[in-house]
Design a protein that fits this description.
Helices cover 31% and strands 27% of the residues. It has 390 residues and is of the alpha/beta class. Bound molecules: S-adenosylmethionine.
Length: 390
Amino acid sequence: MLTPALLRWLASEDARAELHALTASPPDDAQLLTTLTRLRKRFSPEQAAALVELARLRQRAETKFPGRARAMFFEREALEQASPAVVAAWTARRFARFARVADLGCGLGGDTLALAEAGCRVAAVDRRALAVSLAASNARAWGLDARVHPVRADVTRPAWEVEAAWADPGRREGGRRVFHPDQLQPPLASLLALQRTRIPNLGVKLMPGLEHAAIPPQAEAEWISLGGELKEAVLWLGGLAERPGRRATVLPAGVSLWREGAAARVAEPGAYLYEPDPAVIRAGAVGDLAVRLGLWQIDGDIAYLSGEARIPTPFARSWPILEHHPFHLKTLNRRLRALQAEVVAVKKRGSPIEPEPFRRRLHRTPGGRPVIVVLTRVLNRPWMILLAGT
Ligand SMILES: C[S@@+](CC[C@H](N)C(=O)[O-])C[C@H]1O[C@@H](n2cnc3c(N)ncnc32)[C@H](O)[C@@H]1O
């Protein structure tokens, strides 16, 4: 288990050369025992294990911290909870006008680093000694230590006031993911209380499943996706809220769509099917996207859109529709045979069918024309849509 003392050692001259070599080529499972045996001849068992673990975590962290993970310090759970650099840079941008900010619950410093890079001086606060040490080591690794001030404290009992802060509460309890804002560490309610009393401008990162009813009236809620995957919802409070309401942000494009409450018309599918980005769906902005692009919904309750033309947009993916029919397995297999189709994916929305077992019941033409089967509802009837896959 990584401790602050072991972390200090990992960052020391004593460990440097070995850590460098292991980072360049971390051992896989088959090489693990041989590597540990070799390392134990020079280092203690704890040091040997820590060297190998860090080298492997650096490799894994490359997706969250591209190009920079190799010089950083990690602990498994802190890495799992760390904000990816692209998302952290997006949320940190709003803080650029504040000279001093606090990162409440800094973990290994994913957000601290982004805030410091945005130009702020950052108090990196965490109740775990190891987290504070990790954040400090990573600030040094990024050359930002002059702007990062590690503080070990419980953020729910602050002895200070700060104009603006970011909070990324823990979303795990006993190794399990939590789904309610009351179960966060610290809980959302205590962060909202801090905003009322001590921190007028606050951004709180929350689980993307955040209920709209949990959004305070004057807050802005922003759902953020990265590469088509929903990452988080952020509550922006006080002066950090651009305006009260909900918006979807799509990264890495860095574009946002506000929910204005527009209603799309509903009609049968046309030439293209559009699947809105999950951030757009969670923000409740599907109708707004449809109106903006001149599309329509294929069902009043289903987040698929359709249109006669293919319009490039960062807010949705789209495919040409080959054909569509009321749902019927025999008809589907007949049509797949006629099309000489290789089903590359089964998607569903508003259908009780489980895609994977269903896929095994479909006619196959190995090496055939790639087709995506969509199981959904059209005008409130079970429907199937065949898309040209790639
Ligand atoms: C989700 S992690 C933060 C990850 C971080 N934003 C990053 O990108 O690396 C949440 C952190 O909050 C800390 N935490 C939870 N409750 C706290 C409290 N009451 N006071 C201070 N820190 C707390 C945990 O120790 C944990 O490191």
